[in-house]
Amino acid sequence: MDNLIKCLNEYLSDLKVFAAKLQNYHCNVEGKEFFQMHEKLEEYYNCANTEIDEIAESILMIGGQPVGNLNDFIAHTQIVEAKNERINQKAV
């Protein structure tokens, strides 16, 4: 069971960093298709946040402790954070 909790926390961390990356792109996208990209990226990070909640609840239901702070998310993820910079729509 400990290995399952570990794997779920890694997945939770990946989702959390991925959602932050999507939100970063959402805030910084630019170009002629800004509104479409902005809206779609918001849809994606909202979907990821729903999944984050479900995974955290699943960890709790099996007796585990979901990671919940930024340091732990970074320590348990394989995803590299996005740079805080303007994003051309072609890069997304």
Descriptive overview:
- The protein has 92 residues and is mainly α.
- It is built from 3 helices and 2 strands; from the N terminus they run αβααβ.
- The chain has a two-stranded parallel ribbon.
- Helix 1 packs antiparallel against helix 2 and helix 1 packs across helix 3.
- The longest helix has 28 residues.
- The radius of gyration is 15 Å and the shape is elongated.
- It starts with a helix and ends with a strand.
- The mean pLDDT is 91.
Strand count, sense and barrel status of the largest sheet are: 2 strands, parallel
The separation of the N and C termini measures: 37 Å
Give me the Rg, rounded: 15 Å
Mean pLDDT level = 91
Enumerate how many helices there are, as a single number. Answer: 3
Strand order of the largest sheet: 1-2
Low-pLDDT stretches: none
Strand content: under 5%
What's the order of the H and E elements?
HEHHE
β-strand number: 2
